[in-house]
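Changelog-adjacent note: as of this version, every example in the card shows the full chain rather than a window. The one below runs 265 residues end to end.
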Amino acid sequence: MAKKAKKAPFDPNAFLATLDGGRTISYYRKDQTVFSQGSSADAVFYIRSGKVKVTVVSEQGKEAVVAILGPDEFCGEGCLAGQPLRMSTAVAMTECEIMRLEKAAIVRVLHEEPAFTEMFLAHLLARTIRVEEDLVDQLFNSSEKRLARALLLLANFGKEGRPEPVVAKVSQETLAELIGTTRSRVSFFMNRFRNMGLINYNGHLEIHSSLLNVVLHDESAHQLVSNFRQKLTLGSDGRSFSCSSSAGGVFRFREGMLNGFILAY
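Full-length structure tokens:
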């Protein structure tokens, strides 16, 4: 009697890379809508490449950015909890490749394949933690800190793998909607971060890891620089400076090197 062929183990990544049984892939250009608030919630979307902005519009017409999602993230999961209509709008921020998983197809694989269920549950838990962090950030942190944290998240600092210092082009209006402040405040802080050497912002946005100082310390960016300058000792030549480190060493540099030093401070 011939032995029954062994079923190959289920691979979630392979499942999300193939087209079959309620799974289709679409390509979206920048600013193209993936799904709209109020439309029928009948599928989950998996971002294979690119970035997607998720927004909500109030009855008064005020728009807020609730998430910016990237590769290997899902959106539109509300349909699995019984939402008949979309509660948000998803728009491509860059060129995107996105898989659409029909509700019936994803429900089936969640029931039948523990490996996929584990991966999807990890995604939901990570999203829940992120929402809680966003709420704490909104309630207790200044707009300057909220902006610094948003920029670091856009550059993938704190995620597995290497950060992406150069992030997709994002407007100051979008950043303002994301952190709950005005465009003028975002412009003010972006210029401050750039003048301090924490970011490069000229046609593209490049984030330096030194921006973490603004988030990790209770001091604002302005206070960090002020406190640093107070520790400087002017050299006898009237042009160079020295600063004692917490380890007991002394850094020496010329005035033109000040911004570069702050990056490592």
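Structural remarks: Residues 114-140 form the longest helix (27 residues).
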